Amino acid sequence: MPSLIAFAPTLVGVAVLMAATIGVLALSGVPGRFAPALAILRGAVQLAAISLILAGVITSPIWVAIALLVMFTVAALTATRRLGGTAHLFGIVAFGMAAGVALTLLIVFVTGAIAFTPRFALAIGGIVIGNSMSIATLAGRRFTESVGEQWEQVEGWLALGATPRQSTLDLARRAVYSALIPSTDQTKTTGLVTLPGAFVGAIFGGISPLEAGRFQIVVLAAIMAAGSLTAVVIVRGIAPVRVKPAPLR
After folding, report:
1. Residue 225 has what pLDDT?
2. SS3 string of the chain?
């Protein structure tokens, strides 16, 4: 077990980065300037806890399944909170994410693209769930904001006899497209602009660059597939809009 002294440079580096983040946001007058720093602190505590837990559960199928269920629940609740926080929204978000994640992992393991072991199930499952959460949030927020900004246009379509879903169809499509832009750009620039964590971690773990690259491309494809299905299902679930949505916080 490494001593606390061995972590001193890491703690100092993270503290300086947090201070820089707060300073830049404060000087620019950005609201919520402490939110990123608090997120880092929370992430550090959670990573420390999960590191200790995973040492004992990473080879157990049952405990891996429980860990993935906890990850999924927290992810769905987090995305729901960003979209309004109602029980109805949670149902839509959870269903959309479950559809995207379940279908994607089924394809990955049934085709043999990645071996179906507790270790790999936890690794790729956690990555896909996390990215699906981000895409769900982006898709839902973009759609809601677009409807609010263009409510007069939506009302015009409704007045002409369009159904609530038809009146926001174009906005829904654009919301899905916008939500997928970060993942699409990350995938397109992998190896040129970024070296994904899964790829680097696999190499540091002793896997050959070729095998690490094979794992990473499966991960990227899984993220795109799960994210696409998640975004489409969620936006379709919230798309029948009859009244102007309240602004999101």
Report:
1. 94
2. CCCHHHHHHHHHHHHHHHHHHHHHHHHCCCCCCCHHHHHHHHHHHHHHHHHHHHHHHCCCHHHHHHHHHHHHHHHHHHHHHHHCCCHHHHHHHHHHHHHHHHHHHHHHHHCCCCCCCHHHHHHHHHHHHHHHHHHHHHHHHHHHHHHHHCHHHHHHHHHCCCCHHHHCHHHHHHHHHHHHHHHHHHHHCECCCECCHHHHHHHHCCCCHHHHHHHHHHHHHHHHHHHHHHHHHHHHHHCCCCCCCCCCC
